Input
Amino acid sequence: MAEEQVIDKELAPVHVLAEAFRQDASEDQRLAATNLMNEKAKQDKLGDKTTSTQWAPLVFSILGRNYEGALDALNGGRVTYADAFGPDGARYKQERNNRGSTGKLYDAEGNLLDDNQLKEVNKKGWVVSKEDMTAAGLGEFRAINEGTLAIRKAPFDQVVGAYKKASAQAIESSGIANQFDELQKIAERSRNTKDKVSWLDIYNKLPAEQRAKLSAAANIQLQSATGASNAAGTNAGTYQGTQATLNENKTADLSGTAAKGAPPPAGKAGGAVVPSIASSISETKGASTSGQVGATTGGTTEAGTSASSGAQQQGNFRTQVESIFQGKMSDENFTDFQRFIQLNDSLAAAQANRKVSAPGAEDLGKVDPLLSGQKNVGITAYKGMQNEALLSEWNHFLADKLNSSRGRMPSEQQLADDFKDSEVYKAIKYRYGNNIERVKGIDHVPKEGDVTVDNRNKLLVYRNGEWEKKK
Output
């Protein structure tokens, strides 16, 4: 018994039409295709251009057995769903096909919005998906909706630009917040188990001039190590390039093909794969041998010298650090200290280049003289994470406001006040405020109904002794 053919659900209507095009098609198959075409013609009158039938391309695609092309011509192609931002700050799923948005919208719970619900959303502003945040998507949207939405509220491209900026800021803030999180973890493990002293306590008492010298020395040591790695990689690459050039001069090749060598891993001298003897017999054997030896020797010597110089730089830097901290540091603490300096410099540069901040952001330079260096670093790290979470949400808040303001944005002060009154603002402050209190030694016990955020700034509510997603 033959297996029943499984037909792709989305391609089912194309299959019906394709069967009718066969020379031996039955009357039932032709009738099914006719009914399908008549029904589709009725739908086209009610639907929009993203799902309308392109009859000529449909016929040619079926004749050419290009069934995906036929599906595209029939109704716009396969259906996908994109995350979208609504004018009321809500999040939706937007139904799309190869031509753009089909006009169908689903709420966060996956329920399809009916015509009345859709009209209410569209009265307030635009629904912008991530796919709309491209030049192609923008042009596509304009072509499809030209003349139907007119120029109401803020222009669509302006709204799209605001959401693009918000998405870009979210990515940037996530990266910076991760660095602050790493800084906080370093602070947590900086206290040794023997005398409970943290090297951060000593570091924070150093004069600014001495801190600057340590930072400069750390950068020199890092550059030296990077230089050794680069020199090794460069010389390995030079060796491989010389080898490849010499192999081109061979007059006999027993295998009939040149052996292919993989590029060396970065920082590993002599990492090139040497071609097999069988594939590299050459009349220029003497030149090849001397070239290999010269390149290998030169590369190894220079890489070795660079690596030795890097190790010496690191040793000097470690001696300098331990003299300041008045005692030997464990390898783990010394590695943490190096990373601490890198993070400090990186985050300081990021803050110096920051031109805007969100309402409620806190000054990272403010320290409590009554607290230890370890605790001050931990507090700074949590403030930094809080500031990035606020900035990310602030930009989304502004995009939502622009989308629903009909082009008449409130004053900056009103926007700031509205943001501070929002649930997500209060939840961010709740989370990081409690973390800061914990660093100070104050434990906070959540109570029923408290609202916080997760690492993606999604709202969580405290119910029955545990945190759960807020609906």
